[in-house]
Amino acid sequence: MSDHSPVPAIEVLSAQKTYPNGTVALQPVQLTIQEGEFVTLLGPSGCGKSTLLKMVAGLLEPSDGRLLLWRKPVQAALDADAEAKKMAFVFQSPTLMPWASVQTNVRLPLDLAGVPRAEADARVAEALELVGLSKFAKALPRALSGGMQMRVSIARGLVVQPNLLLMDEPFGALDEITRHKLDADLLELWRKKKLTVVFVTHSIHEAVFLSSRVVMMAARPGRIVEEVHIDVPYPRSAEFMVSSEFQHYAKHLQRSLLAASQHTEEESAT
């Protein structure tokens, strides 16, 4: 009998990371993320959130254990043919080429992949429309606000037409109003494009607003200490952020984060 169970987007199978100097950045982690989930990694500094994300992206090799994307080893999944599922990574800062237009910055992954110019330009136009920057295609990055530069970075991720979007504290440096706007826009993109998103943040409020599941981590060594499902339907509006449900989840995560931070401090002292 054939197995029709869904294929997970990500499987972290006892993956751990120890650096050459002996620092244990990440204890063995077990984590499964299904397609279509919006999962946020939350925890104190040094808990391995970015390390775990970079291992999923194939930017860091685990010291032990395995990571699978769509049931394939990470590198095999990323090296697969053009018809295969794709992953995109959005970093903390926009990392844009300052001398190049918005359009050229967004087109970079397609140029590197050898996508014909006509097709690439059409995909760039679609990505810029998705992030609301169609009118700024010819602008240079220095002419844009910080929030607009992050939109360019997100468009550069979307242009490869990913199924999986990994985001490492992309809005952390932005003011609160811009951050809330981009959070809401990100949820709309996630729903519209049926993405799987793994999002790193230090913000409890951002985690509650965005996530279908929050993975709490503690540091020294980095490890998962709790998983919290945010059982609130989408779409989520600004009203959700002042609701009793929101406050319930925020208080729970605040307590969990405090406990994770105390674990960190106690182990630092020993």
Explain what you see.
- With 270 residues, the protein is α/β, with parallel strands linked by helices.
- It is built from 8 helices and 10 strands.
- α3 crosses α4, α3 packs parallel to α5 and α7 packs across α8.
- The longest helix has 26 residues.
- The mean pLDDT is 92.
Q: What topology emerges from the helices and strands here?
A:
Blueprint: E1 10-18, E2 24-33, E3 38-42, H1 49-56, E4 64-69, E5 72-73, H2 74-78, E6 87-90, H3 102-112, H4 117-130, H5 146-158, E7 164-168, H6 176-193, E8 196-201, H7 204-210, E9 213-218, E10 223-229, H8 244-269
Parallel strand pairs: 3-8, 3-9, 6-7, 7-8
Antiparallel strand pairs: 1-2, 1-4, 4-5, 9-10
Helix pairs in contact: 3-4, 3-5, 4-5, 7-8
Radius of gyration: 19 Å
For the largest sheet, list the strands in their spatial order.
6-7-8-3-9-10
* Distinct helical segment count: 8
Percent range for β-strand residues: 15-25%
**Uncertain runs with pLDDT below 50, 5 residues or more?**
none
Describe the main β-sheet briefly: 6 strands, mixed
In whole angstroms, how far apart are the ends? 54 Å
Helix and strand pattern: EEEHEEHEHHHEHEHEEH
Provide the structure class.
alpha/beta
Q: Looking at the chains present, what oligomeric state does this protein adopt?
A: single chain
Helix content: 25-40%
Strands, total number: 10
Mean pLDDT score: 92
C-alpha geometry: globular
Which key terms come to mind for this protein?
single chain; 270 residues; alpha/beta; 6-stranded mixed β-sheet; 4-stranded antiparallel β-sheet; 8 helices; 38% helix; 22% strand; globular
